[in-house]
């Protein structure tokens, strides 16, 4: 295809003189403005930091800096719902620009120096996300800590642990609950890393290759409380993996808690009657007087599904070619909302665990009435009689089948039953000591024997819970320090801004 000069001219003719189409406003600009309330605080800080940076480099005068900081101070105290964000003007930055111009005239134009509007949004986005990630980190640590406490409390609450909702082996509720802690701690560690990655400054990156006006990008980074500068300017403006990582970790955290919620929902049913949710975490039926539904667990499971959808949506939009705004326009609202909701769900899970009532008698009755000792019985026969495990497995399978038909329990199995099955299944004559067999079938003895690392023995559960609890405390302290540091950075930023305004007034 041959391009004529007139064609080339049209491709570089600048902004359209026409107003945006109503369809574009409704489908595009309206979407961007819908996230203005989320970015509002971050945009205020980003603008204050940029003004102070320009003033520090003597690019703008004391008078211009004072005017800009004055209007930004007013905006700081304005609720986003009361600010005139208007989709007619495009994204949130454009409404702010018109507002500034209406208040202080041409002085507002200096805010563009060395910075495109997308850079302001990128800075604001990270300011918003870093706080949300720190709060989610604190919540994950809180869930881990409270679950550890419950695990220790129930380290000797014996139960038949389950796989596929079938009785598996004797264990304790404490060991079961503690199994959800390592995943939460790993996600908390990932959130700690994600926080450090998000808390890097894109300030001074310009569009793609930096700015001649802002040679030292560390100044604004320090002003805004970032840990450092994203080195490559193109990466600073267009990276998305950092946000995917933070959101995917949040989804992983809630997915772990959703698994717990699904188990508890089944166990709280009348048919199982293992646990009861505290009243504040339930909701009654408006029709059926006898029903009290475990509503908190439904919210955890459904909320996890919502977050999975939001992660999938983010992955779908960030696959675009490089240096396109559409991949982050849709993330500005969705990622903060998802992280905020993940924190609420994690807090809910912690509340459920902390207040859970356990029907210990029911757990023991179901354990004693089943055959969860079968694996230990097969190992006992193997060791006592010197036969291979597969043969012992087949013998025990026949013993269990016969006992179940006769209405017996696992603890009722005796040497005669084993001898009969051994002869029938393998043609073997086996003789076992009755006292040793009874010890081998005792669920308490079985649990006590699980004393290797990570096992269900009460002492092991206690030691694990203490270590996990210490990790959770360290992670919670880190989150608290970061949140305090963000507060301090914002306080100092406004102090510096007020100092410039005061100097201008003098």
Structure description:
The model has no long low-confidence stretch (mean pLDDT 92). Strand 3 (200-201), helix 9 (218-223) and strand 4 (228-229) form a beta-alpha-beta unit. The longest helix has 48 residues, at 458-505. The protein is built from 21 helices and eight strands. Helices cover 66% and strands 5% of the residues. With 506 residues, it is mainly α.
What is the CATH architecture term of the largest domain? Answer: Up-down Bundle
Strand content: under 5%
Annotation, overall tally of beta strands? 8
Low-confidence stretches: none
Please tell me how large the radius of gyration is.
32 Å
How many individual helices? Answer: 21
Mean pLDDT: 92
Reading the helices and strands in chain order gives: HHHHHHEEHHEHEHHEEEHHHEHHHHHHH
What's the CATH class of the largest domain, please?
Answer: Mainly Alpha
Main β sheet profile:
2 strands, antiparallel
Shape: elongated
- Helix share of residues? 55-70%
What would you give as the CATH superfamily of the largest domain?
Fumarase/aspartase (Central domain)
């Amino acid at each position: 295809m041959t391009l004529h000069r007139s064609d080339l001219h049209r491709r570089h003719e600048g902004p359209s003189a026409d107003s945006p189409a109503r369809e574009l406003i409704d489908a595009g600009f309206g979407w961007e403005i819908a996230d203005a309330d989320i970015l509002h605080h971050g945009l205020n800080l980003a603008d204050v930091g940029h003004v102070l940076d320009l003033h520090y480099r003597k690019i703008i005068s004391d008078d211009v800096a004072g005017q800009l900081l004055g209007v930004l101070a007013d905006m700081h105290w304005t609720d986003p719902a009361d600010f005139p964000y208007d989709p007619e003007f495009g994204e949130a930055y454009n409404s702010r620009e018109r507002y500034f111009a209406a208040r202080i005239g041409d002085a507002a134009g200096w805010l563009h120096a060395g910075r495109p509007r997308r850079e302001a949004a990128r800075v604001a986005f990270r300011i918003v996300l870093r706080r949300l990630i720190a709060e989610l980190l604190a919540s994950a640590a809180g869930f881990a800590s409270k679950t550890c406490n419950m695990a220790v409390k129930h380290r000797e609450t014996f139960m038949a642990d389950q796989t596929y909702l079938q009785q598996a082996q004797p264990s304790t509720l404490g060991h079961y609950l503690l199994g959800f802690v390592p995943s939460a701690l790993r996600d908390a560690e990932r959130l700690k890393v994600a926080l450090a990655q998000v808390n890097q400054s894109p300030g001074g990156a310009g569009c793609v290759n930096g700015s001649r006006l802002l040679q030292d990008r560390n100044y604004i980074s320090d002003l805004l409380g970032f840990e450092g500068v994203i080195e490559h300017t193109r990466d600073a403006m267009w990276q998305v993996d950092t946000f995917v990582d933070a959101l995917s970790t949040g989804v992983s955290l809630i997915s772990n808690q959703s698994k717990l919620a699904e188990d508890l929902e089944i166990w709280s049913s009348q048919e199982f009657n293992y646990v009861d949710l505290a009243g504040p975490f339930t909701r009654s039926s408006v029709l059926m007087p006898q029903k009290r539904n475990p509503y908190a667990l439904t919210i955890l499971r459904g909320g996890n599904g919502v977050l999975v959808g939001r992660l999938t949506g983010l992955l779908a939009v960030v696959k675009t070619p490089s240096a396109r705004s559409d991949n982050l326009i849709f993330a500005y609202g969705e990622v903060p909302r998802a992280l905020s909701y993940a924190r609420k769900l994690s807090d809910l899970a912690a509340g459920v665990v902390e207040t859970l009532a356990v029907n210990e008698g029911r757990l023991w009755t179901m354990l004693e009435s089943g055959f969860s000792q079968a694996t230990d019985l097969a190992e006992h026969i193997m060791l006592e009689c010197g036969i291979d495990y597969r043969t012992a497995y087949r013998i025990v399978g026949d013993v269990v089948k016969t006992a179940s038909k006769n209405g017996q329990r696992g603890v009722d199995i005796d040497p005669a039953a084993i001898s009969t099955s051994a002869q029938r299944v393998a043609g073997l004559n086996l003789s076992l000591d009755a006292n040793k067999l009874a010890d081998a079938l005792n669920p308490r003895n079985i649990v006590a024997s699980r004393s290797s690392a990570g096992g269900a023995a009460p002492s092991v559960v206690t030691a694990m819970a203490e270590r996990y609890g210490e990790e959770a405390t360290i992670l919670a302290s880190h989150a608290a320090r970061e949140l305090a540091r963000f507060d301090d950075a914002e306080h100092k930023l406004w102090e510096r801004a007020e100092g410039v305004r005061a100097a201008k007034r003098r």
